[in-house]
Amino acid sequence: MQTTAAHRAAATEVLIIGTGFGGIGMAIRLKQAGIDDVVLLERGDDVGGCWRDNTYPGAACDVPSHLYSFSFEPKSDWSRRYAPQAEILAYLRGCADKHGLRPRIHTGQEVSELRWDAATSLWQATTRDGRIWRARFVVTACGQLSRPLIPRIEGLGDFAGPQFHSATWRHDVDLTGKRVAVIGTGASAIQFIPQIAQRAAQVTVFQRTPPYVIPKQDRPYARWEQRLFARVPGARLATRGWLYLSHEWRALAFTRYPALLKVAQWDALRRLRAQVADPALRRKLTPDYPIGCKRVLLSNDFLPALQRPNVELVTEAISRVTPAGVQTADGRLHGADVLIHGTGFAATEFLTPMTVHGRDGHELNADWKDGAEAFLGISVPGYPNFFMLYGPNTNLGHSSIVYMLESQIAHVLGCLRRVRREGAATIEVRPQAHRAFNNTVQQHIRRTVWDGGCRSWYLTESGRNTVNWPGFTFVYRRLKAGDYQLASG
Ligand code: NAP
């Protein structure tokens, strides 16, 4: 029999699950803090998270890259204001290489179960292939947008041609000259529809709810600007600072005074009138909910693409899919050779399908049966030495998730330092702190524009917003790690 001390000695200090922005950032910061005994488990075949998976044509970020990147790993030569997917993926790969993370990353390792062992004060992670990993601390960095959602539509399986989700794009399917049916008009679909419309014979877009689309102020950076950013760090920092402030004020409108958004709504509808001449198409594209309630989309080519002769926007509800195409409630069959689901992700399910067993019979799915919640979106009572990045109520409608991740990474580091300083074995959030935090979050969320009566991926089936942070990002960053209890093991 091994002793508890021997078990602990054989275990990893920190196990990180996921190697997107969260996992890579956490590992870099741990290394810089002198915590070297780190293992990263990745279900895919490379780092990059959603930027590895989402390779659909036209994929790009809708947050400017000087803000959507680590403050501690700046990049001066972003090719344009809003970087394309391949460049962001290359950036993340570069971060992993530069900081020597590759040897610690184990790909093809999807964690199916996490189990706390009170006897040894260790977490045990089991991967799909049956491997077991033991660690003192676990940090999940699985993202909120990592489980593609394929809609349940009658007859979907009978479709004769290829069908795929935007996040698992089939590059082997040549769309040239094909009739393509696209379900959805969210952030992903509005990026790939203009691209595929250039080569497909016909694109039929099935829209359930019209999005608000506003211009994307995108442009390439000139060589001189890239050189300036590289040689004068102050210029790069000033750009990042300005981007931060120019995005941050929007939190006021989204989360405190939604009435402020009326101007943005008026402007978006004015642009729609100016860009879409056909009144019938314009009617279909006019939202009937307040701007910001669903994610506001940035695009300069979506509305023009919808007006191409080979593109049709269909707003009748889909009744079923047949081998030949998509049938709508009016009985029309829209013939298609390829079916693409731009239907988003199961964002409110968080760590699913992983099961997490904490102490004293706690199981995260059971604890979250009324909706996911965590202290700062990071810690849950009943789960010692367990932290989540980009957990419940930490998504934003107005700024960069990378900023939020850095706040969370600093918070986790603070907890680990405290455990070390006090010679404790475990750290766990106090239930009172957890409850008070989440009551406040839910109270605040009722004042936000997301509570404006629309359907969005921010809400659970019962209408609870378990996804978004209802406030300023600097307020979130300032919330301190004082509400934990430590124990020796
Ligand atoms: P999404 O915003 O959730 O959009 C899904 C679309 O599919 C919506 O139009 C939705 O209609 C429709 N849909 C879903 N189920 C349907 C069904 N059964 N029948 C008909 N239509 C259906 O998903 P997404 O576009 O993949 O984007 C998700 C999030 O990822 C974004 O909000 C953003 O945060 C992130 N993202 C970012 C970027 C970027 O940075 N540029 C790009 C892509 C994605 P309803 O609106 O009626 O639900």
Kindly describe this structure:
With 489 residues, the protein is an alpha/beta fold. It folds into two domains: 4-47 and 101-147 and 346-487, FAD/NAD(P)-binding domain, CATH 3.50.50.60; 156-217 and 246-341, FAD/NAD(P)-binding domain (3-Layer(bba) Sandwich). It is built from 15 helices and 20 strands. The mean pLDDT is 95. The protein binds NADP nicotinamide-adenine-dinucleotide phosphate. NADP nicotinamide-adenine-dinucleotide phosphate binds next to helix 5.
TL;DR of this structure?
This protein has 15 helices and 20 strands.
Overall domain count:
2
Radius of gyration: 23 Å
Architecture of the largest domain in CATH?
3-Layer(bba) Sandwich
Number of alpha- plus pi-helical segments: 15
Helix content: 25-40%
Oligomer: single chain
Largest sheet: 8 strands, mixed
CATH hierarchy class name of the largest domain: Alpha Beta
Mean pLDDT: 95
Shape: globular
Distance between the termini: 18 Å
Small molecules bound in the structure, each named once: NADP nicotinamide-adenine-dinucleotide phosphate
